[in-house]
């Protein structure tokens, strides 16, 4: 009998599934907007274990606020053969002044 390959399902991160990060006051004053690309390590319980900026929005304040705010979210963890395990996922967050 041939061994089957394990079935990997990636973690699902959706910024709409949690509260929006607070827009930094300094960024509002300076009219800063941008898009930050994050890589997030999601634990088996769906919590963010680690996150890093892969592409900056151009504003350190916006990048930091995105990491801080989205790190509080709970996401759907990745699985191998139906068993949750920690895995990296990518998320793009758009900062836009209304």
UniProtKB/TrEMBL annotation:
InterPro entries: TonB-dependent_transducer, TonB/TolA_C, TonB_C. Residues 8-98 form the TonB C-terminal domain. Pfam families: TonB_C. GO terms for biological process: protein transport; transmembrane transport. PROSITE patterns: TONB_CTD (PS52015). The keyword Membrane applies. GO terms for cellular component: plasma membrane. Keywords: Cell inner membrane, Cell membrane, Membrane, Protein transport, Transmembrane, Transmembrane helix, Transport. NCBIfam families: tonB_Cterm. Belongs to the TonB family. This is Energy transducer TonB. It comes from Undibacterium baiyunense.
């Amino acid at each position: 009998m041939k061994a089957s390959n394990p079935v990997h399902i990636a973690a699902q991160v959706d910024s709409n599934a949690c509260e929006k990060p607070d827009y930094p006051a300094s960024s509002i004053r300076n009219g800063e907007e941008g898009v930050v690309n994050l890589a997030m390590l999601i634990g088996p319980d769906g919590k963010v274990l680690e996150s890093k900026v892969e592409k900056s929005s151009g504003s350190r304040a916006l990048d930091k606020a995105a990491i801080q705010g989205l790190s509080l979210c709970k996401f759907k963890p990745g699985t191998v053969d139906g068993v949750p395990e920690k895995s990296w996922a990518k998320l793009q967050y758009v900062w836009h002044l209304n």
